[in-house]
Specification:
The complex is a heterotrimer of chains A (266), B (138) and C (660).
Chain A lengths: L1 H18 L4 E8 L2 E7 L8 E2 L7 H9 L5 E5 L1 H12 L8 E5 L4 H7 L21 H8 L2 H13 L6 H5 L27 H10 L8 H5 L6 H16 L18 H7 L1
Parallel strand pairs in A: 1-4, 4-5
Antiparallel strand pairs in A: 1-2, 1-3
Chain B lengths: L6 E6 L3 H10 L8 E6 L7 H9 L4 E6 L10 H19 L6 E5 L5 H18 L10
Parallel strand pairs in B: 1-2, 1-3, 3-4
Helix pairs in contact in B: 1-4
Chain C lengths: L6 E6 L3 H4 L4 H9 L4 E7 L5 H13 L4 E6 L2 H14 L7 E5 L1 H5 L5 H19 L8 E4 L3 E5 L3 H12 L3 E5 L30 H14 L3 E4 L2 E9 L2 E8 L14 H5 L4 E2 L8 E2 L2 E2 L11 E2 L5 H4 L8 H5 L12 E7 L1 E4 L3 E3 L15 E3 H8 L18 E8 L14 H15 L4 E6 L9 H10 L3 E4 L6 E6 L2 E6 L5 E3 L1 E6 L1 E3 L3 H8 L26 E3 L9 H19 L3 E4 L4 E3 L8 H5 L5 E6 L2 E6 L9 H5 L5 E3 L4 H13 L3
Parallel strand pairs in C: 1-2, 1-3, 3-4, 6-7, 6-16, 7-8, 16-27, 18-25, 19-20, 19-25, 20-21
Antiparallel strand pairs in C: 5-28, 9-10, 10-15, 11-12, 13-14, 17-26, 22-23, 23-24, 29-32, 30-31
Helix pairs in contact in C: 2-6, 3-4, 6-19, 7-8, 7-16, 12-13, 13-14
The chains are: A alpha/beta (266), B alpha/beta (138), C alpha/beta (660).
Chain lengths: 266, 138, 660
């Protein structure tokens, strides 16, 4: 099944490149036994194209476009699509410069990422599988405040401040991160001050986390970051009926209160 | 010795800071626990400031702005409110009692309500006890 | 920063205001131990001349490059001390204030705790002061034209005062005429003589010269039937959008012949006489109004609503002068102005909600209705006849919609004396009448008011005291009206006049939004300071005149209007204005995500391509300095002058470090 899907994708990529409407197709390739991102151009050996493992390509698209490509196609998953949507909103990528080719994740992939929306809005390859909710979510929800604080305190005590989470994040696009600014975060302190360091990052993720799991996968200390960010996504939904990456709606933290909320606030 | 909470309040220049001034002019007795930092608008208060204060050991943080609809900058406080709602949730997720922070409104004329907020919040923090979250790995 | 920080701290006793509950000497001792502090003094009044001299000497003798004064609120004396340090050659923004009076000594009784808090507040200020940066005030040019909103008595006075000083004025009035509510009074107090014959206290004689001053003044552009729909810009450089509704009659051509009214088929209640008579769709609002002109109300006109005149309007045909143009359209224009006087007035309290007063009864009326009833230009030509009868027994009820526990708590200030005036009017016109006045206090504090009140008592007005909390009831039984009040016999009345109070204009919140004003607790526009700046608002360049700021009589309104005009001219007379320094700016780490653009209420931020990359660029003339964009910027690329993250963090750290 997977092999068949890969073959179909390769065929489509070749056709897309030959069609000449895009300058390249951003996807994964295998080079020297390792899989990484690559911008395929006309004439490239399409048999090197891969779709596994998962690799969020949205942030790579910024680089691809910065290097001169005017329009590219991107073979991506649900999280790629959502990340692209957030990057469009923040003017990091021109919406018209991307042709998104969507594939659904397999059940195994969804389980690995603990992803609750493991498919894009437009699925061209693969079949939609059910979202996954990690069992830990219930656990932390049932904890008392003090237990929860102890849980996270212990989890974040492992942080070695490698900034892997930030670097892997497709929607963390700041040129300079406040978490690297000595005004906010003491240089050389490991683990970084808790709760500050991780709360600031979490707050910054609130209206943009697309639940791609890249941060947690990048974390060498296995800190369950997405468990926290998942709850924030839930909050955004509850508070503002907003889900990052789901639509081109403006991030609610930037907009004014709606009329019906005005009364509550006053 | 009884616990005396150490509380930080952000007041906007136009309404809540003026309310604090008016409370002073009216000699409205208040607990000494609160130290006010003046900003032009409650919309200037980065949630990161609140996080930083709690992380550094401040026992409670108040953000006081103009009433919704009365913001000197029209809608600065709209953003304050939304950010605050997210921040409250975030604190709860990580196990910090959200009652340690409070967002409220006081117009320049509301000296009495302002004083009451100060008294109530101080009492609330006194009940919650010292900030257990700061300097966690120290 | 290469320069070594040298902070001087000055602790003020403010006589006993601070000194009584804060040990200022101890605070000063504490300040000496703080980082960068090289010089500390404490004195009786830092704002006094010797106090200021001490600061200047300190800067000179001790090479201070930052100054902290611990005294009152910066909202009070920050400008004073900024000027002081500037006088000594220091950039005025290298000054910081610790508010140990309003926020400390005045609200704490325990001297020990108060002193500790004052020390803490000084620590906060010293921490911030060390990080202050010198700033240059911005200068912008000034458009030497004013906008006055509202052409009631206050607006007219403000407009003529400004024009008399040589500046152009746009005077915008949403009604069809000038004079506002006062134009519809029967007489205006204080009455100079109280004779029935005209002695000049009627609005016509009193106001017409004022009207003419406005009409004749070439510097005043009058926009009637118009509203200000948008204001952009900032002090010295506002842009106002004025929308004018058509009146369909060319005022220059109209000769007031009245032929149009004669043929007009429509008939609707005349709102300006509270429905006591009807009017046509094309009509002359009153003989007393200025500018005098027929106007056409399209909501009543059968040409517009469909009817007899749909195709061939009778009035157009009847007008021999071609003064009527039914094709006239709404117009919108933009004007550049430097300053704004708000003179939007008040609304009359509507007593319908007070069921016990039976306002719906035709012989229970409000004071403004009585004014029309007794006016020579009114529906009865000044004869006291209502509902077909001449009222021999008249009850006046004061404080309706004023001085209420659960309603309008404030005193409307004018009702006592207009009630006396109206009682006098009844007694003059109907000398046998029994006039009962139910009052809760007689507040006749204005010049000549008490004398007038005494005179009305002498004339036989029956003043009946009622405690505020005592219920007062009007009962209606087969058209028999009775006033029932504790402590008094029931009063059978032919007419009941409710002394309705003054309330804020129903749409004042919209004006607030338009101009960034605030409302005080009573719903009227809030002044910048109730005592010291009663005319200014928190929006630079916008001033208040008349009842929009709170109830007042005509004399006070005129005085305030002249004051507002003077304040406005203070701006208009300047070549350039200095604007606030607390603006936002972004640095080269900005990635152009546009979050700041989205949150800016003032359109001050745009994304621009700089060296091939998108960056946020702040128009500092438009930036109001709220800092909302800075809090929204995830990377910290956006910062605010004088309120940098670093400065605020230093204060947070100072608080955290000083845990009690």
């Amino acid at each position: 099944m997977l092999v068949l899907m890969l073959e179909d994708i390769r065929k489509l990529v070749k056709k897309t490149l030959d069609g000449g409407k895009v300058d390249g197709v951003l996807a994964l390739w295998r080079e020297n036994g390792r899989v990484g991102p690559h911008l395929f151009v006309k004439g490239d050996d399409i048999s090197t194209l891969e779709i596994d493992p998962k690799y969020n390509l949205a942030a790579v698209a910024i680089l691809a476009l910065a290097s001169g490509a005017k329009k590219i196609a991107l073979i991506g998953r649900g999280c790629d699509e959502r990340a692209l949507v957030e990057l469009f909103k923040r003017y990091q990528i021109d919406e018209n410069a991307i042709e998104f080719i969507g594939m659904a994740c397999s059940a195994e992939q969804a389980k690995f990422c603990e992803c609750d929306i493991p498919y894009p809005t437009k699925i061209q390859f693969g079949k939609k599988v059910k979202g996954v909710v990690p069992p830990e979510l219930n656990d932390v929800n049932e904890m008392s405040l003090d237990e929860r604080f102890a849980y996270w305190r212990d989890a974040f005590a492992k942080c070695v401040k490698c900034y892997g989470c930030k670097n892997a994040c497709p929607v963390c696009v700041c040129e300079e991160c406040v978490l690297e600014d000595p005004m906010w975060v003491k240089k050389g302190e490991i683990p970084p001050a808790f709760p500050m360091f991780h709360l600031i990052r979490a707050y910054h993720m609130a209206d943009r986390c697309v639940q791609c799991y890249e941060c947690e996968e990048a974390c060498p200390m296995d800190i369950p970051l997405t468990l926290l960010y998942r709850q924030l996504r839930q909050d955004m939904k509850e508070l503002f009926d907003y889900l990052p990456g789901a639509s081109d709606a403006k991030p609610p933290l930037t907009t004014v209160l709606e009329d019906e909320k005005l009364e509550e606030g006053a | 010795m009884t616990f005396e909470p150490n509380i930080l309040a952000f007041c906007c220049n136009w309404c809540s800071y003026a309310a604090a001034d008016l409370a002073g002019i009216g000699r409205m007795d208040q607990p000494t626990n609160i130290k006010i930092v003046r900003v032009m608008c409650s919309g200037r208060v980065k949630p990161e400031f609140v996080i930083k204060a709690l992380s550094d050991g401040v026992d409670g943080v108040l953000i006081l702005g103009c009433h919704i609809g009365d913001c000197h900058y029209v809608t600065g406080n709209h953003r304050t409110l939304k950010r605050f709602q997210v921040l409250e949730r975030l604190l709860e997720h990580i196990g910090i009692d959200p009652r340690r922070i409070r967002l409220d409104w006081a117009s320049a004329a509301e000296a009495e309500p302002f004083s009451n907020m100060i008294r109530e919040f101080t009492e609330q923090i006194r009940e919650l006890g010292p900030n257990p979250y700061a300097g966690s790995y120290a | 920063m290469s320069e070594k920080i040298r902070i001087g701290v000055f602790v003020c006793h403010c006589g006993l205001n601070i000194g009584a509950t804060v040990d200022c000497a101890a605070v000063a001792e504490h300040a000496k131990k703080l980082p960068h502090v090289v010089y500390v003094e404490h004195n009786m009044y830092t704002c006094s001349e010797p106090g200021q001299l001490q600061i200047k000497n300190g800067i000179r003798d001790h090479d201070l490059n930052r100054v902290v004064v611990a005294s009152c609120s910066p909202r009070m004396h920050e400008p004073t001390f900024r000027a002081t340090v500037a006088d000594a050659g220091l950039n005025p923004f290298l000054f910081e204030m610790a508010n140990i009076r309003e926020h400390c000594s005045w609200i704490h009784k325990d001297k020990e705790a108060g002193t500790e808090k004052a020390k803490m507040l000084v620590e906060l200020s010293v921490a911030r002061a060390a990080l202050l940066e010198p700033l240059d005030s911005r200068e912008v040019g000034v458009t030497n034209t004013a906008l006055v909103i509202g052409a009631g008595v206050s607006g007219m006075r403000a407009a003529t005062d400004i024009a008399d000083r040589g500046y152009d004025v746009h005077l915008v009035e949403r009604e069809l005429f000038m004079g506002g509510k006062a134009a519809w009074f029967s007489k205006m107090f204080p009455l100079r003589k109280c004779e029935e014959t005209c002695v000049g206290d009627c609005p016509h004689c009193l106001l017409v010269p004022e009207f003419e001053e406005v009409l004749d003044n070439p510097r005043i552009t009058l926009h009637l039937n118009s509203e200000v729909t948008n204001i952009d810009g900032y002090v010295g450089n506002f842009k106002a959008t004025i929308r004018t509704q058509p009146i369909y009659v060319d005022r220059d051509k109209c000769t007031y012949c009245g032929e149009c009214t004669n043929v007009c088929p429509a008939s609707v209640p005349d709102e300006r006489n509270y429905g006591m008579q009807t009017r046509k769709a094309i009509y002359l609002p009153s003989t007393g109004i200025v500018p005098r002109s027929y106007v056409l109300d399209d909501s009543a006109c059968s040409h517009f609503v469909g009817g007899k005149c749909a195709k061939k309007p009778l009035c157009v045909k009847a007008c021999k002068f071609g003064a009527i143009d039914l094709k006239e359209k709404e117009r919108t224009q933009e004007v550049d102005i430097g300053t704004i006087v708000v003179a939007t007035g008040f609304d009359n309290y509507d007593p319908t909600e007070k069921k016990e007063l039976h306002y719906q009864h035709p012989r229970v009326i409000t004071a403004p209705e009585f004014e029309r009833l007794s006016a020579y230009t009114g529906p009865t030509d000044g004869k006291l006849v209502i509902d077909g009868i001449e009222p021999k027994r008249v009850a006046f009820i004061s404080c309706v919609g004023s001085r209420e526990k659960d309603g309008n708590e404030y005193c409307s200030r004018v009702c006592c004396i207009f009630t006396a005036k109206q009682a006098h009017s009844v007694l003059r016109k109907l000398p046998d009448a029994h006039v009962a006045v139910y009052y809760t206090d007689v507040r006749a504090f204005g010049k000549g008011h008490e004398e007038f009140y005494q005179k009305v008592l002498d004339e036989g007005a029956d003043y009946r005291l009622r405690e505020l909390e005592d219920p007062l009831k009007v009962t209606i039984n087969n058209d028999n009206i009775k006033v029932r009040c504790k402590g008094h016999k029931d009063f059978k009345a032919d007419l009941v006049v409710l002394a309705t109070g003054l309330v804020p204009q129903h749409d004042s919140p919209e004006i607030c939004r338009l101009l960034n004003l605030s409302l005080s607790g009573d719903g009227f526009f809030m002044e910048a300071h109730p005592k010291l700046r009663p005319i200014d608002t928190f929006t630079d360049g916008v001033f208040l005149a008349g009842c929009c700021q709170g109830p007042k009589d005509i004399a006070d309104s005129m005085a305030q209007a002249s004051g507002a005009a003077a304040r406005a001219c203070g701006i208009l007379s300047k070549m350039a204005l200095t604007l606030g320094v607390e603006t936002a700016f972004s640095d080269e780490t900005c990635i152009g995500c546009g979050t700041c653009v989205e949150v800016c209420q003032f359109g001050a931020i745009t994304l621009e391509e700089i060296d091939g990359e998108l960056r946020a660029v702040v128009n500092e003339a438009l930036c109001k300095g709220c800092g909302t964009c800075i809090a929204a910027c995830p990377s910290g690329a956006m910062q605010q002058r004088h309120y940098t993250d670093e400065q605020i963090l230093a204060m947070i750290e100072a608080v955290a470090g000083g845990g009690a």
